[in-house]
Amino acid sequence: MSTSAITSSSSIQMDYMKLLIAQLQNQNPLEPLDNNEMASQLAQFSELEQLESMKSSFAQVLETAERSYANSLLGKNVTFYAEDETSGGLETKVGTVDSVFNDPETGKSLLGVTVGEGQEVNEYTLNLGAVILIEN
After folding, report:
1. 97/66 same-domain check
2. 23, 49, 71: which is the final residue of a domain?
């Protein structure tokens, strides 16, 4: 479980306790808070905490799957669009995936792609969404 999920779950529990205390302090003594209503609220907060935990788990699974997919592209030819230096328009490029690494800012997998041979070699860094075709 990530730190943000733990912080969020803890925050949800603290918010519930503050809400419960406020309800108990401000309740009408002649009409006390219904036990069923309190149990229902507690169950809702518990469900919210579990959903938060599931969200964190799914994010970790997705991150792992993305890394595995990116690693599977090593050595393969990929087609992508790049900006033409002279016209400024988009042109199709085909290159070989030489490396896979993570962007330190976003944590997303990036591909290092080499296009061309000899003295006409260009290096590109792509995110997975930029790849439009994959070939062996």
Report:
1. no
2. 71
Let me know how many helices (H) and strands (E) the chain has, helices first: 2, 5
Say what the pTM is: 0.62
How confident is the prediction along the chain (136 residues), in pLDDT tens digits per residue? 445 555 566 777 787 788 878 877 887 777 776 778 777 877 887 888 888 889 989 988 998 999 999 999 999 999 999 998 888 899 999 999 999 999 989 889 999 999 998 888 999 999 999 999 999 8
The verdict on 11 and 67 lying in the same domain is: yes
Instruction: Count CB-CB contacts under 10 A for residue 113.
Output: 25
Q: Which helix (H) or strand (E) holds 64?
A: helix 35-72
Do 110 and 120 lie in one domain? The reply is yes
97 neighbors 136 (Cβ within 8 angstroms): no
